[in-house]
Amino acid sequence: MRRRAGVGAIHKQKLEQEKYRDKGTEIQENQLEQMSKQMEVFRTNLEDFAAKHKNEIRKNVQFRRQFQDMCASIGVDPLASGKGFWSVLGIGDFYYELSVQIVEVCIATSYKNGGLITMDELRKRLVQARGRSKQHQDISIDDLLCASKKLRIFGNGFTVLPMGKGQYLVQSVPGELNMDHTAILQAATDNEGHISCSDIQSKLGWELERTQRGLNYMLQEGLAWIDVQNPKEKTYWFPSLFAACVNAQ
Amino acid sequence: MGALFGKQKPKSRVTDHDRAILQLKQQRDKLKVYQKRIQGTLEKDTELARKLLRDGKKDRARLILRKKKYQEQLLSTTDNQLENLEKLTQDLEFAGIEAQVINGLKVGSEALKKANAVFSIDEIERIMDETREGVEKQQEIDEMLSGVLSDQDEEDVLAELDDIIKEQKKETEPSPAVPDEEMDELPDEEMEELPDVPSEEPQESTAAKKERNKQPKEKVAIAAS
Amino acid sequence: MSEIEWPWQYSFPPFFTIQPHAETKARQLKAWHTLVLNYFKANNLSSLDIREAHQSSLFNNSSIDRKLPPEGILLVLEDLQKSGNATPLDKTRNRWLVYWHTLEEWAAIIYSWAQANGFLNTVCTFFELVSGDDTNEQEFHGLDEEVLLRAIQVLETQKKAEVIPIDDSHGVKFF
How many CB atoms lie within 10 A of CB C160? Predict the structure, then answer.
């Protein structure tokens, strides 16, 4: 009895286990199917939403920002794709277009600023240039930062330098700027676009040699101009930070 | 012509005529400058006179006005002179153009003369005679071709006609006999009348060739059997 | 003196210091080039003495207390010379003629005027060309006689004109 029952039990257990496994698989499959379905629905909804609010996304800065966050949460990068459904939307295009325009502005102004431009000036010129050709689109600094990420592929030929206080400089000529140079630029930004040795020494607490090395590098790179007629001492000027230059034309 | 002279650098293309006009023009320029100066002082004087009158200095104002009047006369004199100068300059320039026109006419008539000199009257007569002879000859040929015949020609024609008629009579009477004779004589005639030969010979030769071609074929056939 | 619209560089202090960096210097000289020609054109000037140049606001921006030093002015003029827009008048290179049109351009402008207005094969005084009523609308109206002479001399080498010296002035015959 025990034996028989044993065999039977084992047999039965086996059967049950199989049944459970089958059921489990079935449930798993069901769940997966359902989840895929949910994902599908979500994606479709997102697409519908994006398509519906396409213009809004292109025009409204905040809206665009939130939409991007939403996309990021499900692992879709509207910037990364130039093909498929997202290209129909033109979201990726929007940033590609923007980054091309950024390069255009940088090249067009490099004759006077030596390839260094403040994000503010860049934005102003971009909005001007775009305003002429198509319906006015509001471009935020965030958009510009996003678009300029695309330009990283150019290596150090195109760099965005954070200046603190929400200020950025865009450098469009090759030539690595190290921390010292960035610090000098930052100091000049706060000083109407010019700086002297003693200014730097007192502000940043550097010794003379370090200060001069940094300033000379900026001169060599064509980013700074030197003025020897200041009665006190030589002054280094950055056209990219000089108001009259920024507003020219 | 200008380019021609231009190559010889020392030779100037400026004529005395040009210099004369230039002198006049310079004189005119000087007058114009003078006029401008007087006009300037005139305006100043008027202003001054007005001011003097306001200040009650009537005598001085009158003096100034008198000076102004004089200067105005000067101005009109210079105007006249200027007009004369302009006229003279224009006359001179026009004379230059006239000279050019006359020069052009001269060149034209020279060319015409040269062209005429090529033909002398004798030459023309000779050419005309030759032409006439040529024309006559041509007419003769034309007449000959188109059958306008002389009496001699008419006689010749009639004689030929008689000959042909006689010949025809001969031919029609012994007609049955002639073909046989002719058949016999045929080989001889072929030898004599060369033009007929080429038309027949190619046919004969091809026929001969065919025969020649046939023969070897037969020979081969026999050899094989 | 009519004022021109100064470029942004004019208020940029280092613009008045010749830059050591070659590329920056080239940019600087290019800006000076344009500025000088604009200034000379606007004020109808033709000559410049480096020793007196500081009296002109062109090289001296008193509002920011900056002057282009004589060496700098010389550099700018030499740059203008390269493009045919300036010629030194003496060996010390202190006195200069500056043309906002090159002499070749002036020559072409004057000749096309003469051609269009039937002045070929006639003589004109220099006074007539730069101050006469016939040329009021022309760009070369009021042109310095020295510059005019040089432009006509260009035409002379092209066999399109001949200068005729008369008394203390000049005339010209166009061909």
Answer: 20
Residue at B158 is within a domain: yes
The answer to whether C159 contacts B6, with C-beta atoms less than 8 Å apart, is yes
To which residue do tokens 């920002």 refer?
Answer: A65
Are the beta carbons of B14 and C167 separated by less than 8 Å? no
Do C68 and C41 contact (CB within 8 A), yes or no?
A: no
Please check whether residues B111 and B26 belong to one and the same domain.
yes
CATH number of C8-98: 1.10.10.570
C19 contacts chain A (CB < 8 A): yes
CB A126 within 8 A of CB A44: no
Q: Model pTM?
A: 0.62
Residue type, A42: F
User: Chains that contact A by 3+ CB pairs under 8 Å?
Assistant: C
Is residue A238 within 8 Å of A193, Cβ to Cβ?
yes
Domain ranges of chain C: 8-98, 103-174
CB of A203 closer than 8 Å to CB of A187:
yes
d(CA A239, CA A230): 17
pLDDT digits (tens, 9 = 90+) for C87-100: 998 888 889 999 88
Q: Is the pLDDT of residue B176 over 70?
A: no
Neighbours of C, requiring at least 3 CB pairs below 8 Å, are: A, B
How close B25 comes to chain C (CA, Å)?
Answer: 7
d(CA B103, CA B99): 6
CB atoms within 10 A of CB A165: 8
Q: How far does the CA of residue B57 sit from the closest CA of chain C (Å)?
A: 38
Residue-by-residue DSSP string for B140-205: HHHHHHHT---HHHHHHHHHHHHHHHHHHHHHHTTTTHHHHHHHHHHHHHHHH-TTHHHHHHHHHH
Distance CA B28, CA B25 (A): 5
Domain extent at residue B77? 15-118
How much is the ipTM here?
Answer: 0.78
Q: Which helix (H) or strand (E) holds A118?
A: strand A116-118
From the candidate CATH numbers 3.40.50.300, 1.10.10.10, 3.40.50.150, 3.40.50.2300, the one assigned to the domain spanning C103-174: 1.10.10.10
| Closest partner CB to C125 (pick from B13, B29, B93) | B29
The structure tokens listed for B48 are: 């001054």
| Residue B27 pLDDT | 84
Domain A93-241 architecture? Orthogonal Bundle (1.10)
Tell me if B22 and C125 make a contact (CB, 8 A cut-off). yes
How many other CB atoms sit within 10 Å of the CB of residue B214? 10
Strands (E), chain C: 47-49, 60-61, 66-67, 86-88, 95-98, 123-125, 161-166, 169-174
Domain ranges of chain A: 7-76, 93-241
Mean pLDDT across C109-137 = 86
With cut-offs at 50, 70 and 90, classify the pLDDT of residue B33.
Answer: confident
SS3 A75: coil
